[in-house]
Structures are given as structure tokens and as C-alpha cells.
Amino acid sequence: MATQDFSVFEQSTSKRDLARQAAGLAAIKSYSSNQSVGVGLWDCRTGSGKTAAALAAAHSHFDLVAKLADSWLLCECKAASPSHAQIALQQNPSAVLRGNGETALLAIVYRVVISLMEREQITLARKTLDALPVGRLDNPMIVRLRKTLAVPTIRTSQKQDVDRQRDFGWIRDHAQEYRGQWVALDNGQLLATAASLRELLDHVKPLQLRHSPLIHQLT
Amino acid sequence: MLNTSDGVQFATGRARFLDEDANALEGTAKVFVKIEPSNLGFPVLAQLDTGCPWSILKPEIAEAIMLTDEKGQSESLNTRFGIVDGQLKRTSITILADDGNSIDVEATVFVPTEWTAGNFLGYGGLLERVRFAVDPQENLFYFGPCT
Questions:
Q1: Cα B88–Cα B93–Cα B97 angle in degrees, nearest 5
Q2: Could you tell me if B49 lies within 8 Å of chain A, comparing CB atoms?
Q3: Residue B67 near residue B73 (C-beta atoms within 8 A)
Q4: Which of the residues A126, A181, A205, B136 has an alpha carbon 20 to 30 A from that of A3?
């Protein structure tokens, strides 16, 4: 059963792209039973609505992940070999997953989450990750995904900037002349200009200024 | 600053924004607010774009704050310039206030491998936890943390 394709943690291989596509399609089909995530492009199901029905019966996030994994596995089987697909359709794919161990499940969840992210389904991607049991959260790739998808945190700061109306006026008036250049502005005056940010900062950092200049690239 | 109808503070800070970019490719007015990425030490401009799934930091700025040193999550973003490859990274972005308090957002931003456009403040990973309002008459951007 296509276990060789489970090395989907790779970030830059052609296999990754195939796996990503299959996982994405599985995610779309699975979630489309009760949420609008765009048009379905490709039907991985048996044609009898089994996936939708199973999802409707899912009572927890963990169930959801398991169903997503099932759906993904079926897509993989169909893509790999029609005979494999027939076998998979006749048995519970989750059982196959259990046979392949935890790595397979994590790989599938990883791919589903990546696919959801690529379809800008950030909330669903977070829910899918949250469905993983606590004991499976220490995988490095899962850790990185959780960090990436973490809800932003905010704290207020006493820091203040100065009114930049004059600098904005300079940008309006002179943008065409300095197209492509990085500029440093203060109180409506051009302090420095450079072709790169690094070069500009080299000019600006030694200056003794009352407050930091506005940095902008005129693209 | 700004309060809700039941007296709860909506915005903790406000700043004047740049409402046009004379050399913008589309030639239409946009809202550019002042931010300071991590420890850059200087304010830069970022276009407010709630339709953008992630915020975007120019690669040069990411390099200046040493964000390119750490490995992020590879991602491809569909932009009006086409599909752009890059990485999603976690960093601190300060939205700067002229009056009141600024806010420091521990955010997820997209750092493209190659990118000739500007910085963007997108909804996912950043604005989703920020209350904000725009006063186009005075060119003022009000903002504060979600409670």
C-alpha cells in the first residue's frame, strides 16, 4: 500500500507536489460536505457519498482528521493503481493507516494542513492541527506548522512615531524621480538614497537624529 | 481614542496614513500604514490589504532583521504578480501610533524569495486579532488589540 509515498515531509520534491495535490483535493472534498470552500475539482469518492456521510457522522476533531486521512488515502490509492484503489475501497483505510503507524498519520495531517493553507483556509488548517492528540504534537514539522499557524498575539506599547505628513508629501512629489531607490526621509527632507536597503542603512545609522527616519523603497 | 457604543475601548492608538502611492502600478489610492518590523529600528510603510491571506515582508527587510536566518514553512502565495514562492515566518511587527499606544503583534508573515512590490499587512496571522478603523477624511488609521 503506497507507503513509499508517505515521505511527504519533504519540502521541495516532485513527490511532495503530488502528495500535496492529493491531500488538497481530499481536504476540499471532505470539507465541502458542510462548509463552502470553493468548487470541487475532482471526485475522489466512490460516487456513493460515503465520505460526506462519514463526515456528517464525525463527532470530534479527531474523527475529522481520521476521515480526512481516509479520503486522502483513497485518492493516493487511485492515483497509484486502480487495483490498489479497489482493495482500499473494500476495507477501512484507517486500518491500513494504523498498520503504517504514527508517521503515516502525521504525514497525512501535515499534507492536509499544507493544502488547506494553500487554499487560504487558515481556520480549518488550525482546527485540523488542533485535532491531533497532545502526544503527537512534538514532531518537528508539526511543531513548525503550529508555530506558523498560531493566532497572533498583541500587546500595547508606549512607543510612538512622529507625524509623517511631510514625508508622505515628499513621496507624492518625488516618487517618479527615485523609482527603484530606497530612501530615508525625515521632516519632508531626503536624508539618503541607495540602491539597496543595506547600503541605505549604512548611510543612515551613523547619523545623529532626533528620531528615526522613514525608510521606503519607491518601486 | 475610539470607543464602542457600550464604552469599551476600540482603538488604543492612531496614526496618519499615506493614501496614495504616486508610482503604484494600479494608479489607485491605497492605505499605507507605518510599521516597524522586529528590531529594524526604523519605520517603513506597509499597504493595508485585508484580502491578502498573509502579511508580506520584503526580502531585504526580512534580511535586515535576520529573519532569513531561521527556517520557516515553505509556501506558495497566489498574488496579483503571479504565484510567488517563499516562507512563512513568525516575527514581531509593531504598528506605530502617532497618538496613543502602538501595538506589538507577534505575527506570521510571508517572506517571498523574490519580490519587487512593497510590504503588506494581510488578514491571516496579523490583522485577524487587530481592531482597526479608517477615517478617510482625516487620513487617520485607528487600531488596537482585540480583547
A1: 155
A2: no
A3: no
A4: A126
Q: What is the rounded CA–CA span in Å between residue A97 and residue A66? A: 9
- Indicate whether A127 and A187 sit together in one domain: no
Residue with cell 527615485: A178
Question: Torsion-angle region of residue A182: left (phi > 0), alpha (psi -120 to 50) or beta?
Answer: beta
**Secondary structure (DSSP) of B14-58:** EEE-B---TT-SS-S---EEEEEETT--S-EEEEE-TT-SSEE--
Shared-domain flag, residues A127 and A197: no
**Residue carrying the nine cell digits 476521515:** A67
The pTM of this model reads 0.75
Asked if A152 lies within 8 A of B105 by C-beta distance, the reply is yes
Examine residue A154 and state whether it is found in any structural domain, yes or no: no
Boundaries of domain holding A80 = 3-149
Q: Which of A147, A161, A171 lies closest to B34 in CB terms?
A: A161
Q: What band does B134 get if pLDDT is binned at 50, 70 and 90?
A: very high
Question: Looking at residue A74, what is its pLDDT?
Answer: 58
* Percent composition of chain A: helix, strand, coil (DSSP 3-state, to 5): 60, 10, 35
Kindly tell me if the per-residue pLDDT of A103 is higher than 60.
yes
- B20-56 residue pLDDT tens: 764 555 667 889 999 999 989 999 999 999 999 999 9
CATH number at residue B130: 2.40.70.10
If contacts are CB pairs under 8 Å, which of residues 184-203 in chain A contact chain B? 184, 196-198, 201
- Using an 8 Å Cβ cutoff, are A213 and B41 in contact? no
